[in-house]
Amino acid sequence: MAASSVTVTYNFGQKTLLARKPISKTIPSSVLTSSTATYLKKKRWNVLRLVMVKKTEKDHKLQEETNTERWTVITPRVLQRLERKRSERNTYLVAAVMSSLGVTSAAAMAVYYRFSWQTEFGEYILPEMLGTFALSVGSAVGMEFWARWAHRALWHASLWDMHESHHQPRDGPFELNDIFAIINVVPAIALLSYGFLNTGLFPGLCFGAGLGITTFGMAYMFVHDGLVHRRFPVGPIADVPYLQKVAAAHYLHHSCILNGVPYGLFLGPKEIEEVGGMEELEKEVQRRTKKSKS
Length: 294
Known about the structure:
Elements: E1 5-10, E2 23-28, H1 34-117, H2 122-158, H3 160-163, H4 179-197, H5 201-228, H6 241-255, H7 268-274, H8 278-293
Antiparallel strand pairs: 1-2
């Protein structure tokens, strides 16, 4: 049997200035044992893997440089827009906090002094207190139904010229639609003042109605302006599951997917259920949840 041979060439000093001749050596194939062949295969695989890793690192570096250049181009415009939005949010936040503290402290003091001054009327103090509490809860719930009706029958009809600003991109910290909040303050102050300055069951009922309207207005501001439209941060109430549904339902109102439904706020999910739009509501809840986590 004829013996065959294999020529193995070694290259040394490939990166030196003077190119050297490769050293060739003929090795009989019988010398190449299975372990030697396996070693050569592993060596070739390691070299190939090293080349692939270096190529991947090079591609990643090029991609990072491209992304950096892209961000460099758009960063000034983005920063300017973010700075403007931040200024608008801070302006509205200051106004919201000041008005909230003012109204809350005034209402709390009014409740305290009204009943402390009238303790001498022991015969009527209990009915007044019960009437005040009942009207506080009743008027707060009633305001939701009033807001739903007014939203559909007035704001999206004869008062659309004012309400339209709420359905367009806002330019500045305030919008023309905010005037409706000021309008609702007038009857609340009138009822609170009359109930505070007078005694008896009827003034107590008026006082409770004013408190209910005030409570609804405060809750509406935090949920609608803060949670839904993100005009200021609202903290942990953003994690309340039902309020997340409320926010998603109000977004569906702005998207007109269900012909404007819901027109209410806190009972918005119930309105959507009545028109068979729960599937759209669940999709919107999932979309907002995914967006908040990204």
